[in-house]
Protein backbone atom coordinates (compact mmCIF):
# COMPACT_ATOMS: atom_id res chain seq x y z
CA UNK A 1 0.00 0.00 0.00
CA UNK A 2 2.75 2.42 0.99
CA UNK A 3 4.76 1.44 -2.05
CA UNK A 4 1.80 2.30 -4.22
CA UNK A 5 1.37 5.65 -2.48
CA UNK A 6 5.07 6.43 -2.83
CA UNK A 7 4.99 5.37 -6.48
CA UNK A 8 2.11 7.74 -7.15
CA UNK A 9 3.83 10.54 -5.31
CA UNK A 10 7.04 10.04 -7.30
CA UNK A 11 5.10 10.02 -10.56
CA UNK A 12 3.29 13.25 -9.81
CA UNK A 13 6.48 14.94 -8.65
CA UNK A 14 8.15 13.64 -11.82
CA UNK A 15 5.23 15.01 -13.86
CA UNK A 16 5.85 18.49 -12.41
CA UNK A 17 9.52 18.26 -13.43
CA UNK A 18 8.89 16.87 -16.90
CA UNK A 19 6.21 19.38 -17.85
CA UNK A 20 8.08 22.41 -16.56
CA UNK A 21 11.24 21.13 -18.28
CA UNK A 22 9.33 20.73 -21.52
CA UNK A 23 8.03 24.31 -21.28
CA UNK A 24 11.56 25.61 -20.67
CA UNK A 25 12.91 23.61 -23.59
CA UNK A 26 10.54 25.52 -25.88
CA UNK A 27 12.88 28.52 -25.46
CA UNK A 28 15.90 26.76 -26.93
CA UNK A 29 17.02 28.88 -29.90
CA UNK A 30 14.60 31.71 -29.11
CA UNK A 31 15.90 33.26 -25.87
CA UNK A 32 16.53 37.02 -25.50
CA UNK A 33 20.30 36.52 -25.20
CA UNK A 34 22.56 33.60 -26.00
CA UNK A 35 23.53 33.18 -22.33
CA UNK A 36 19.85 32.53 -21.57
CA UNK A 37 19.57 29.93 -24.33
CA UNK A 38 22.28 28.11 -22.41
CA UNK A 39 20.85 28.75 -18.93
CA UNK A 40 17.23 27.87 -19.71
CA UNK A 41 18.31 24.71 -21.53
CA UNK A 42 20.44 23.84 -18.55
CA UNK A 43 17.53 24.24 -16.11
CA UNK A 44 15.26 22.30 -18.50
CA UNK A 45 17.82 19.48 -18.59
CA UNK A 46 17.98 19.35 -14.81
CA UNK A 47 14.18 19.17 -14.58
CA UNK A 48 13.79 16.46 -17.22
CA UNK A 49 16.67 14.56 -15.62
CA UNK A 50 14.91 14.68 -12.26
CA UNK A 51 11.67 13.48 -13.88
CA UNK A 52 13.56 10.56 -15.40
CA UNK A 53 15.12 9.65 -12.03
CA UNK A 54 11.80 9.86 -10.16
CA UNK A 55 9.96 7.86 -12.83
CA UNK A 56 12.70 5.25 -12.80
CA UNK A 57 12.33 4.79 -9.05
CA UNK A 58 8.52 4.76 -9.37
CA UNK A 59 8.73 2.04 -12.03
CA UNK A 60 11.08 -0.05 -9.88
CA UNK A 61 8.72 0.22 -6.90
CA UNK A 62 5.85 -0.70 -9.20
CA UNK A 63 7.58 -3.98 -10.06
CA UNK A 64 8.74 -2.91 -13.52
CA UNK A 65 5.30 -3.15 -15.14
CA UNK A 66 5.82 0.25 -16.75
CA UNK A 67 8.88 2.11 -18.01
CA UNK A 68 9.74 5.81 -17.51
CA UNK A 69 9.22 6.40 -21.24
CA UNK A 70 5.75 4.87 -21.07
CA UNK A 71 4.90 7.20 -18.20
CA UNK A 72 6.06 10.21 -20.20
CA UNK A 73 4.89 9.32 -23.68
CA UNK A 74 1.91 7.01 -23.37
CA UNK A 75 -0.26 8.48 -20.63
CA UNK A 76 -3.21 10.68 -21.53
CA UNK A 77 -3.96 14.13 -20.22
CA UNK A 78 -6.21 12.95 -17.37
CA UNK A 79 -3.52 10.51 -16.21
CA UNK A 80 -0.93 13.25 -15.67
CA UNK A 81 -0.82 14.51 -12.08
CA UNK A 82 1.33 17.63 -12.37
CA UNK A 83 0.30 20.87 -10.71
CA UNK A 84 -1.41 23.30 -13.10
CA UNK A 85 1.24 26.01 -12.77
CA UNK A 86 3.83 24.02 -14.75
CA UNK A 87 1.60 23.36 -17.76
CA UNK A 88 0.64 27.01 -18.40
CA UNK A 89 2.16 28.32 -21.63
CA UNK A 90 5.67 29.72 -21.39
CA UNK A 91 4.41 33.24 -22.20
CA UNK A 92 7.03 35.98 -22.37
CA UNK A 93 10.42 35.81 -20.67
CA UNK A 94 9.00 37.41 -17.51
CA UNK A 95 6.35 34.74 -17.20
CA UNK A 96 8.86 31.94 -17.73
CA UNK A 97 11.28 33.38 -15.19
CA UNK A 98 8.66 34.16 -12.53
CA UNK A 99 7.11 30.71 -12.89
CA UNK A 100 10.50 29.04 -12.65
CA UNK A 101 11.40 31.11 -9.64
CA UNK A 102 8.16 30.29 -7.76
CA UNK A 103 8.45 26.63 -8.72
CA UNK A 104 12.16 26.28 -7.91
CA UNK A 105 11.67 27.69 -4.40
CA UNK A 106 8.94 25.06 -3.90
CA UNK A 107 11.12 22.28 -5.28
CA UNK A 108 14.03 23.30 -3.10
CA UNK A 109 11.89 22.90 0.03
CA UNK A 110 10.39 19.66 -1.27
CA UNK A 111 13.72 18.01 -2.11
CA UNK A 112 15.26 19.17 1.16
CA UNK A 113 12.41 17.35 2.92
CA UNK A 114 12.73 14.29 0.66
CA UNK A 115 16.46 14.00 1.32
CA UNK A 116 15.53 12.34 4.62
CA UNK A 117 13.04 9.94 3.00
CA UNK A 118 13.49 6.38 4.39
CA UNK A 119 13.64 5.08 0.80
CA UNK A 120 17.37 5.45 0.14
CA UNK A 121 16.90 5.79 -3.63
CA UNK A 122 14.48 8.68 -3.20
CA UNK A 123 16.70 10.31 -0.58
CA UNK A 124 19.63 9.98 -2.99
CA UNK A 125 17.75 11.59 -5.89
CA UNK A 126 16.59 14.40 -3.59
CA UNK A 127 20.11 14.97 -2.28
CA UNK A 128 21.50 15.26 -5.82
CA UNK A 129 18.68 17.56 -6.85
CA UNK A 130 19.06 20.12 -4.06
CA UNK A 131 22.19 21.75 -5.49
CA UNK A 132 20.64 22.00 -8.94
CA UNK A 133 17.56 23.65 -7.50
CA UNK A 134 19.69 26.10 -5.52
CA UNK A 135 21.15 27.18 -8.83
CA UNK A 136 17.69 27.48 -10.40
CA UNK A 137 16.54 29.63 -7.49
CA UNK A 138 19.61 31.85 -7.69
CA UNK A 139 19.47 32.27 -11.45
CA UNK A 140 15.74 33.04 -11.53
CA UNK A 141 15.80 35.27 -8.46
CA UNK A 142 18.53 37.38 -10.08
CA UNK A 143 16.37 37.76 -13.17
CA UNK A 144 13.30 38.60 -11.08
CA UNK A 145 15.36 41.44 -9.58
CA UNK A 146 16.58 42.62 -13.00
CA UNK A 147 13.08 42.60 -14.40
CA UNK A 148 11.41 44.11 -11.34
CA UNK A 149 14.01 46.87 -10.98
CA UNK A 150 15.07 47.25 -14.62
CA UNK A 151 12.76 49.33 -16.79
CA UNK A 152 9.13 50.30 -16.53
CA UNK A 153 8.24 47.76 -19.19
CA UNK A 154 10.10 44.92 -17.52
CA UNK A 155 8.54 45.74 -14.17
CA UNK A 156 5.04 45.77 -15.59
CA UNK A 157 5.62 42.49 -17.43
CA UNK A 158 7.05 40.87 -14.29
CA UNK A 159 4.13 42.13 -12.22
CA UNK A 160 1.66 40.79 -14.79
CA UNK A 161 3.42 37.41 -14.56
CA UNK A 162 3.17 37.40 -10.76
CA UNK A 163 -0.53 38.31 -10.96
CA UNK A 164 -1.24 35.59 -13.51
CA UNK A 165 0.73 32.86 -11.75
CA UNK A 166 -0.07 33.52 -8.12
CA UNK A 167 -3.54 31.87 -8.37
CA UNK A 168 -1.77 28.61 -9.24
CA UNK A 169 0.70 28.51 -6.36
CA UNK A 170 -1.40 27.11 -3.48
CA UNK A 171 -1.87 23.85 -5.38
CA UNK A 172 1.81 23.09 -4.88
CA UNK A 173 1.16 22.83 -1.14
CA UNK A 174 -2.31 21.29 -1.33
CA UNK A 175 -2.79 18.51 1.21
CA UNK A 176 -4.52 15.38 0.00
CA UNK A 177 -5.02 11.75 1.00
CA UNK A 178 -1.88 10.62 -0.74
CA UNK A 179 0.33 13.02 1.19
CA UNK A 180 -1.43 12.29 4.46
CA UNK A 181 -0.93 8.57 3.98
CA UNK A 182 2.75 8.96 3.17
CA UNK A 183 3.33 11.22 6.16
CA UNK A 184 1.33 8.97 8.50
CA UNK A 185 3.33 5.91 7.48
CA UNK A 186 6.61 7.80 7.90
CA UNK A 187 7.62 7.56 4.23
CA UNK A 188 7.54 11.32 3.80
CA UNK A 189 8.51 13.85 6.43
CA UNK A 190 5.66 16.18 7.35
CA UNK A 191 5.51 19.09 4.95
CA UNK A 192 3.69 21.30 7.44
CA UNK A 193 5.26 24.66 7.49
CA UNK A 194 6.74 24.46 3.99
CA UNK A 195 3.89 26.53 2.59
CA UNK A 196 4.46 29.31 5.11
CA UNK A 197 8.22 29.13 4.60
CA UNK A 198 7.76 29.32 0.82
CA UNK A 199 5.40 32.29 1.06
CA UNK A 200 7.87 34.04 3.31
CA UNK A 201 10.91 33.53 1.08
CA UNK A 202 9.11 34.26 -2.16
CA UNK A 203 7.34 37.35 -0.84
CA UNK A 204 10.66 38.77 0.29
CA UNK A 205 12.32 38.26 -3.11
CA UNK A 206 9.37 39.70 -4.96
CA UNK A 207 9.11 42.77 -2.78
CA UNK A 208 12.91 43.26 -2.98
CA UNK A 209 12.29 43.44 -6.73
CA UNK A 210 9.52 46.02 -6.11
CA UNK A 211 6.87 43.48 -7.15
CA UNK A 212 3.58 43.23 -5.30
CA UNK A 213 2.37 39.89 -3.97
CA UNK A 214 -1.37 39.56 -4.67
CA UNK A 215 -3.48 39.24 -1.55
CA UNK A 216 -6.25 36.69 -1.13
CA UNK A 217 -6.80 35.67 -4.73
CA UNK A 218 -8.79 32.63 -5.78
CA UNK A 219 -6.57 29.54 -6.06
CA UNK A 220 -7.01 26.99 -8.83
CA UNK A 221 -6.45 23.29 -8.13
CA UNK A 222 -7.19 20.06 -9.97
CA UNK A 223 -3.91 18.89 -11.48
CA UNK A 224 -3.31 16.30 -8.76
CA UNK A 225 -6.62 14.63 -9.72
CA UNK A 226 -5.93 14.87 -13.45
CA UNK A 227 -8.24 17.88 -13.91
CA UNK A 228 -6.01 20.07 -16.05
CA UNK A 229 -6.16 23.29 -18.04
CA UNK A 230 -6.66 23.01 -21.81
CA UNK A 231 -2.97 23.73 -22.30
CA UNK A 232 -1.72 20.34 -21.16
CA UNK A 233 -3.50 18.46 -23.96
CA UNK A 234 -1.72 20.51 -26.60
CA UNK A 235 1.61 20.08 -24.86
CA UNK A 236 1.16 16.29 -24.73
CA UNK A 237 0.00 16.13 -28.36
CA UNK A 238 3.31 17.62 -29.35
CA UNK A 239 5.48 15.77 -26.84
CA UNK A 240 3.99 12.34 -27.56
CA UNK A 241 3.38 12.49 -31.32
CA UNK A 242 6.46 10.57 -32.48
CA UNK A 243 6.36 7.97 -29.72
CA UNK A 244 2.63 7.33 -30.21
CA UNK A 245 2.88 7.21 -34.02
CA UNK A 246 5.24 4.24 -33.84
CA UNK A 247 3.92 2.00 -31.07
CA UNK A 248 6.42 -0.75 -31.89
CA UNK A 249 9.35 1.60 -32.35
CA UNK A 250 12.54 1.58 -30.31
CA UNK A 251 14.38 4.89 -30.27
CA UNK B 1 54.85 51.56 -46.24
CA UNK B 2 58.31 50.10 -45.72
CA UNK B 3 57.26 48.95 -42.25
CA UNK B 4 54.21 47.18 -43.63
CA UNK B 5 56.29 45.17 -46.06
CA UNK B 6 58.71 44.21 -43.30
CA UNK B 7 55.86 43.36 -40.94
CA UNK B 8 54.12 41.31 -43.54
CA UNK B 9 57.17 39.23 -44.35
CA UNK B 10 57.85 38.68 -40.65
CA UNK B 11 54.18 37.70 -40.22
CA UNK B 12 54.41 35.18 -43.07
CA UNK B 13 57.62 33.75 -41.59
CA UNK B 14 55.91 33.19 -38.25
CA UNK B 15 53.03 31.40 -39.95
CA UNK B 16 55.34 29.29 -42.08
CA UNK B 17 57.24 28.19 -38.99
CA UNK B 18 53.96 27.09 -37.39
CA UNK B 19 53.65 29.86 -34.81
CA UNK B 20 50.19 30.96 -33.71
CA UNK B 21 49.15 34.55 -34.27
CA UNK B 22 47.65 36.04 -31.10
CA UNK B 23 45.26 39.01 -30.74
CA UNK B 24 47.93 41.61 -29.85
CA UNK B 25 50.30 40.54 -32.62
CA UNK B 26 50.68 42.54 -35.80
CA UNK B 27 48.58 41.16 -38.64
CA UNK B 28 47.65 42.42 -42.11
CA UNK B 29 44.26 44.15 -42.20
CA UNK B 30 43.11 41.68 -44.82
CA UNK B 31 43.96 38.77 -42.48
CA UNK B 32 41.93 40.39 -39.70
CA UNK B 33 39.05 41.02 -42.08
CA UNK B 34 39.04 37.45 -43.43
CA UNK B 35 39.14 35.99 -39.94
CA UNK B 36 36.28 38.16 -38.70
CA UNK B 37 34.28 37.01 -41.72
CA UNK B 38 35.07 33.32 -41.12
CA UNK B 39 34.67 33.28 -37.35
CA UNK B 40 31.45 35.26 -37.39
CA UNK B 41 30.00 33.03 -40.13
CA UNK B 42 30.92 30.06 -38.00
CA UNK B 43 29.31 31.64 -34.90
CA UNK B 44 26.15 32.55 -36.81
CA UNK B 45 25.98 28.99 -38.14
CA UNK B 46 25.95 27.64 -34.61
CA UNK B 47 23.12 30.00 -33.64
CA UNK B 48 20.98 29.47 -36.72
CA UNK B 49 21.86 25.77 -36.49
CA UNK B 50 20.00 25.59 -33.18
CA UNK B 51 16.71 26.07 -35.04
CA UNK B 52 16.33 22.99 -37.27
CA UNK B 53 17.21 20.61 -34.45
CA UNK B 54 15.51 22.68 -31.77
CA UNK B 55 12.40 22.04 -33.85
CA UNK B 56 12.45 18.44 -32.52
CA UNK B 57 13.28 18.92 -28.81
CA UNK B 58 9.61 19.10 -27.90
CA UNK B 59 8.82 15.96 -29.95
CA UNK B 60 11.78 13.69 -29.16
CA UNK B 61 10.39 10.18 -28.68
CA UNK B 62 12.11 9.13 -25.43
CA UNK B 63 13.37 10.87 -22.29
CA UNK B 64 16.94 9.93 -23.10
CA UNK B 65 16.74 11.34 -26.63
CA UNK B 66 14.99 14.46 -25.40
CA UNK B 67 17.77 15.16 -22.91
CA UNK B 68 20.53 14.38 -25.39
CA UNK B 69 19.03 16.66 -28.04
CA UNK B 70 18.45 19.48 -25.59
CA UNK B 71 22.05 19.15 -24.39
CA UNK B 72 23.25 19.16 -27.97
CA UNK B 73 21.39 22.32 -28.95
CA UNK B 74 22.61 23.90 -25.72
CA UNK B 75 26.19 23.02 -26.75
CA UNK B 76 25.60 24.85 -30.02
CA UNK B 77 24.63 27.99 -28.12
CA UNK B 78 27.84 27.52 -26.13
CA UNK B 79 29.88 27.18 -29.35
CA UNK B 80 28.29 30.41 -30.55
CA UNK B 81 29.48 32.07 -27.35
CA UNK B 82 33.10 30.88 -27.70
CA UNK B 83 33.18 31.89 -31.34
CA UNK B 84 31.75 35.37 -30.79
CA UNK B 85 34.40 35.78 -28.07
CA UNK B 86 37.11 34.64 -30.50
CA UNK B 87 35.83 37.19 -33.04
CA UNK B 88 35.82 39.91 -30.38
CA UNK B 89 39.60 39.45 -29.96
CA UNK B 90 39.86 40.95 -33.47
CA UNK B 91 38.16 44.17 -32.41
CA UNK B 92 34.49 43.65 -33.28
CA UNK B 93 31.57 43.39 -30.87
CA UNK B 94 29.09 40.55 -30.61
CA UNK B 95 26.22 43.05 -31.00
CA UNK B 96 27.59 44.35 -34.31
CA UNK B 97 28.11 40.83 -35.61
CA UNK B 98 24.56 39.84 -34.65
CA UNK B 99 23.23 42.97 -36.35
CA UNK B 100 25.03 41.87 -39.52
CA UNK B 101 23.39 38.45 -39.29
CA UNK B 102 19.96 39.98 -38.78
CA UNK B 103 20.25 42.53 -41.58
CA UNK B 104 21.32 39.76 -43.94
CA UNK B 105 24.83 41.11 -44.67
CA UNK B 106 26.58 38.21 -42.88
CA UNK B 107 26.28 34.62 -44.01
CA UNK B 108 25.83 31.35 -42.12
CA UNK B 109 26.12 27.77 -43.26
CA UNK B 110 23.51 27.05 -45.93
CA UNK B 111 22.87 23.58 -44.55
CA UNK B 112 20.57 25.12 -41.94
CA UNK B 113 18.26 26.42 -44.64
CA UNK B 114 16.92 22.91 -45.17
CA UNK B 115 13.90 21.75 -43.15
CA UNK B 116 13.88 18.96 -40.54
CA UNK B 117 10.84 16.91 -41.53
CA UNK B 118 10.98 13.82 -39.33
CA UNK B 119 12.66 12.59 -36.17
CA UNK B 120 15.17 10.74 -38.37
CA UNK B 121 16.53 14.12 -39.50
CA UNK B 122 17.86 14.66 -35.98
CA UNK B 123 19.95 11.49 -36.28
CA UNK B 124 21.08 12.21 -39.81
CA UNK B 125 22.08 15.79 -38.98
CA UNK B 126 24.20 14.50 -36.11
CA UNK B 127 25.81 11.90 -38.32
CA UNK B 128 26.30 13.77 -41.62
CA UNK B 129 26.13 17.49 -40.82
CA UNK B 130 28.10 17.29 -37.58
CA UNK B 131 30.34 14.72 -39.25
CA UNK B 132 31.14 17.16 -42.06
CA UNK B 133 31.56 20.02 -39.58
CA UNK B 134 34.06 17.95 -37.57
CA UNK B 135 36.20 17.32 -40.67
CA UNK B 136 36.32 21.05 -41.28
CA UNK B 137 36.78 22.06 -37.64
CA UNK B 138 39.52 19.50 -37.00
CA UNK B 139 41.49 21.36 -39.65
CA UNK B 140 40.52 24.74 -38.18
CA UNK B 141 41.72 23.59 -34.75
CA UNK B 142 45.21 23.84 -36.28
CA UNK B 143 44.50 27.27 -37.70
CA UNK B 144 47.20 29.94 -37.41
CA UNK B 145 45.01 32.29 -35.38
CA UNK B 146 45.30 31.19 -31.75
CA UNK B 147 41.85 32.07 -30.38
CA UNK B 148 40.09 30.50 -33.37
CA UNK B 149 42.22 27.35 -33.20
CA UNK B 150 41.48 26.94 -29.49
CA UNK B 151 37.74 27.55 -29.94
CA UNK B 152 37.66 24.84 -32.62
CA UNK B 153 39.57 22.42 -30.45
CA UNK B 154 36.88 22.73 -27.76
CA UNK B 155 34.08 22.59 -30.30
CA UNK B 156 35.45 19.42 -31.92
CA UNK B 157 35.41 17.54 -28.63
CA UNK B 158 31.70 18.22 -28.23
CA UNK B 159 30.89 17.70 -31.90
CA UNK B 160 32.41 14.24 -31.82
CA UNK B 161 29.96 13.36 -29.08
CA UNK B 162 27.07 14.78 -31.14
CA UNK B 163 28.12 12.78 -34.16
CA UNK B 164 28.23 9.62 -32.09
CA UNK B 165 24.73 10.27 -30.76
CA UNK B 166 23.46 11.05 -34.26
CA UNK B 167 24.92 7.89 -35.69
CA UNK B 168 23.41 5.91 -32.83
CA UNK B 169 19.96 7.31 -33.70
CA UNK B 170 20.53 6.41 -37.37
CA UNK B 171 21.66 2.89 -36.48
CA UNK B 172 18.66 2.40 -34.16
CA UNK B 173 16.18 3.54 -36.81
CA UNK B 174 17.92 1.53 -39.53
CA UNK B 175 17.41 -1.58 -37.39
CA UNK B 176 13.84 -0.59 -36.48
CA UNK B 177 10.35 -1.04 -37.94
CA UNK B 178 9.69 -0.76 -41.67
CA UNK B 179 8.44 2.79 -41.15
CA UNK B 180 11.49 3.77 -39.12
CA UNK B 181 13.80 2.34 -41.76
CA UNK B 182 12.12 4.24 -44.56
CA UNK B 183 12.13 7.39 -42.43
CA UNK B 184 15.88 7.25 -41.93
CA UNK B 185 16.62 6.41 -45.56
CA UNK B 186 14.46 9.35 -46.66
CA UNK B 187 16.37 11.64 -44.31
CA UNK B 188 19.71 10.48 -45.75
CA UNK B 189 18.34 11.02 -49.27
CA UNK B 190 17.54 14.62 -48.38
CA UNK B 191 20.67 15.49 -46.36
CA UNK B 192 23.44 13.73 -48.29
CA UNK B 193 24.06 16.26 -51.06
CA UNK B 194 23.60 19.36 -48.90
CA UNK B 195 26.18 17.81 -46.50
CA UNK B 196 28.72 17.54 -49.33
CA UNK B 197 28.01 21.17 -50.24
CA UNK B 198 29.01 22.21 -46.70
CA UNK B 199 32.67 22.08 -47.77
CA UNK B 200 32.06 24.92 -50.22
CA UNK B 201 32.75 25.27 -53.95
CA UNK B 202 35.35 23.25 -55.84
CA UNK B 203 38.90 24.46 -55.22
CA UNK B 204 39.13 26.21 -58.59
CA UNK B 205 35.91 28.13 -57.82
CA UNK B 206 36.82 29.05 -54.26
CA UNK B 207 38.09 32.64 -54.26
CA UNK B 208 39.38 32.66 -50.67
CA UNK B 209 41.10 29.30 -50.43
CA UNK B 210 44.59 30.14 -51.75
CA UNK B 211 44.99 33.14 -49.48
CA UNK B 212 43.60 31.37 -46.41
CA UNK B 213 45.93 28.43 -46.98
CA UNK B 214 48.95 30.69 -47.43
CA UNK B 215 48.09 32.26 -44.06
CA UNK B 216 47.60 28.88 -42.45
CA UNK B 217 44.00 29.72 -41.51
CA UNK B 218 42.95 26.73 -43.56
CA UNK B 219 45.26 23.78 -43.94
CA UNK B 220 43.41 21.67 -46.49
CA UNK B 221 41.34 22.58 -49.53
CA UNK B 222 37.55 22.22 -49.85
CA UNK B 223 37.78 19.28 -52.27
CA UNK B 224 40.35 17.52 -50.15
CA UNK B 225 38.18 17.81 -47.03
CA UNK B 226 35.05 16.75 -48.92
CA UNK B 227 36.80 13.63 -50.24
CA UNK B 228 38.01 12.77 -46.76
CA UNK B 229 34.45 13.10 -45.42
CA UNK B 230 33.04 10.83 -48.14
CA UNK B 231 35.78 8.27 -47.51
CA UNK B 232 35.01 8.01 -43.80
CA UNK B 233 31.23 8.12 -44.19
CA UNK B 234 30.59 5.43 -46.82
CA UNK B 235 31.74 2.52 -44.61
CA UNK B 236 29.52 3.86 -41.80
CA UNK B 237 26.51 3.90 -44.14
CA UNK B 238 27.27 0.36 -45.25
CA UNK B 239 27.61 -0.83 -41.66
CA UNK B 240 23.99 0.10 -40.91
CA UNK B 241 22.50 -0.74 -44.31
CA UNK B 242 21.85 2.83 -45.46
CA UNK B 243 21.98 3.56 -49.21
CA UNK B 244 23.82 6.70 -50.28
CA UNK B 245 21.73 8.47 -52.94
CA UNK B 246 24.47 8.61 -55.57
CA UNK B 247 24.43 6.04 -58.39
CA UNK B 248 27.93 7.11 -59.47
CA UNK B 249 29.56 6.27 -56.16
CA UNK B 250 32.59 3.99 -56.89
CA UNK B 251 35.56 2.84 -54.88
CA UNK B 252 38.84 3.59 -56.61
CA UNK B 253 41.28 0.85 -55.60
CA UNK B 254 44.27 2.84 -56.72
CA UNK B 255 43.64 6.08 -54.86
CA UNK B 256 41.65 4.49 -52.01
CA UNK B 257 38.98 7.16 -52.53
CA UNK B 258 35.24 6.82 -52.88
CA UNK B 259 34.53 8.73 -56.10
CA UNK B 260 31.18 10.46 -56.16
CA UNK B 261 28.81 12.04 -58.69
CA UNK B 262 28.45 15.70 -59.63
CA UNK B 263 27.23 18.14 -57.01
CA UNK B 264 24.32 20.36 -58.05
CA UNK B 265 26.06 23.73 -57.77
CA UNK B 266 22.98 25.56 -59.01
CA UNK B 267 21.22 24.42 -55.86
CA UNK B 268 24.23 25.44 -53.77
CA UNK B 269 24.26 29.01 -55.13
CA UNK B 270 20.46 29.25 -55.03
CA UNK B 271 20.45 28.50 -51.28
CA UNK B 272 23.40 30.83 -50.60
CA UNK B 273 21.57 33.63 -52.38
CA UNK B 274 18.66 33.21 -49.98
CA UNK B 275 16.31 30.95 -51.91
CA UNK B 276 16.66 27.74 -49.95
CA UNK B 277 13.56 26.16 -48.44
CA UNK B 278 13.99 27.79 -45.00
CA UNK B 279 16.19 30.91 -45.44
CA UNK B 280 13.31 33.31 -44.81
CA UNK B 281 11.97 31.31 -41.89
CA UNK B 282 15.33 30.98 -40.15
CA UNK B 283 15.97 34.70 -40.38
CA UNK B 284 12.45 35.44 -39.20
CA UNK B 285 12.95 33.19 -36.16
CA UNK B 286 16.25 34.88 -35.28
CA UNK B 287 14.82 38.37 -35.78
CA UNK B 288 11.78 37.69 -33.63
CA UNK B 289 13.91 36.20 -30.85
CA UNK B 290 16.05 39.35 -31.05
CA UNK B 291 13.10 41.76 -31.19
CA UNK B 292 11.06 39.95 -28.52
CA UNK B 293 14.11 39.92 -26.27
CA UNK B 294 14.92 43.62 -26.61
CA UNK B 295 12.97 44.65 -23.51
CA UNK B 296 14.80 41.94 -21.53
CA UNK B 297 18.23 43.17 -22.61
CA UNK B 298 17.19 46.75 -21.85
CA UNK B 299 16.04 45.70 -18.38
CA UNK B 300 19.33 43.90 -17.73
CA UNK B 301 21.31 46.95 -18.89
CA UNK B 302 19.22 49.34 -16.77
CA UNK B 303 19.64 47.08 -13.75
CA UNK B 304 23.41 46.79 -14.28
CA UNK B 305 23.83 50.56 -14.55
CA UNK B 306 21.78 50.94 -11.38
CA UNK B 307 24.37 48.73 -9.61
CA UNK B 308 27.18 50.87 -11.00
CA UNK B 309 25.50 54.09 -9.86
CA UNK B 310 24.92 52.59 -6.40
CA UNK B 311 28.56 51.50 -6.18
CA UNK B 312 29.81 55.00 -7.13
CA UNK B 313 27.60 56.77 -4.61
What does this structure look like?
With 251 residues, chain A is mostly helical. Chain A has one domain (2-245): Ferritin, CATH 1.20.1260.10. In chain A, 67% of the residues lie in helices and 0% in strands. Chain A is built from ten helices and no strands. Chain A has helices at residues 2-25, 34-61, 68-73, 84-87, 93-114, 120-149, 152-165, 177-184, 194-208, 230-245. In chain A, helix 5 packs across helix 7 (152-165). By secondary structure, chain B is mainly alpha-helical. Helices cover 68% and strands 2% of the residues of chain B. Chain B contains 13 helices and two strands. Chain B has helices spanning 2-16, 29-48, 50-54, 63-88, 94-102, 119-140, 146-174, 178-197, 209-214, 222-239, 265-275, 279-292, 294-312, and strands at 250-252, 257-259. Chain B has a two-stranded antiparallel ribbon. In chain B, a hairpin with a 4-residue loop joins strand 1 (250-252) and strand 2 (257-259). Chain B is globular. The chains are: A mainly alpha (251), B mainly alpha (313). Chains A and B meet through helix 1, helix 2, helix 3, helix 6 and helix 7 of A and helix 3, helix 4, helix 12 and helix 13 of B.
Sum up the structure in keywords.
A: 251 residues, mainly alpha, B: 313 residues, two-stranded antiparallel sheet, 68% helix
Summarize the structure.
The complex is a heterodimer of chains A (251) and B (313). With 251 residues, chain A is an all-alpha fold. Chain A is built from ten helices and no strands.
Beta content of chain B comes to under 5%
Number of domains of chain A: 1
Number of helical runs of chain B? 13
Cα shape of chain B: globular
Helices and strands, with pairings:
The complex is a heterodimer of chains A (251) and B (313).
Chain A: H1 2-25, H2 34-61, H3 68-73, H4 84-87, H5 93-114, H6 120-149, H7 152-165, H8 177-184, H9 194-208, H10 230-245
Helix pairs in contact in A: 1-2, 1-8, 2-6, 5-6, 5-7, 5-9, 6-7
Chain B: H1 2-16, H2 29-48, H3 50-54, H4 63-88, H5 94-102, H6 119-140, H7 146-174, H8 178-197, H9 209-214, H10 222-239, E1 250-252, E2 257-259, H11 265-275, H12 279-292, H13 294-312
Antiparallel strand pairs in B: 1-2
Helix pairs in contact in B: 2-4, 4-7, 6-7, 6-8, 6-10
Amino acid sequence: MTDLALTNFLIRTGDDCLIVGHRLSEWCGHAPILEEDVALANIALDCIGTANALYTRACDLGGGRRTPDELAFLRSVTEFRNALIVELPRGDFARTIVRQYLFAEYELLLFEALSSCPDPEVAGIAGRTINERKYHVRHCREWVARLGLGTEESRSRAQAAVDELWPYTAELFQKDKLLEELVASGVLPGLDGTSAEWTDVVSRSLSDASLVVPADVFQHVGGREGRHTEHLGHLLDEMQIVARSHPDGKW
Amino acid sequence: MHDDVANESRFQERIDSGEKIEPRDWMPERFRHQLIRMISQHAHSEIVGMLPEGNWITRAPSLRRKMALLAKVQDEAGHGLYLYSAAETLGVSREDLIDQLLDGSAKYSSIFNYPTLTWADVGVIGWLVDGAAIVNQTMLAKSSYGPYARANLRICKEENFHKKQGFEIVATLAAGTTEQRSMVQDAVDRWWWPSLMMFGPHDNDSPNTAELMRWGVKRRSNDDLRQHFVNITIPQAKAVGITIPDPELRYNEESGDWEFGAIDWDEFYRVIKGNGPCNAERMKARRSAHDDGRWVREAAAAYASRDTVAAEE
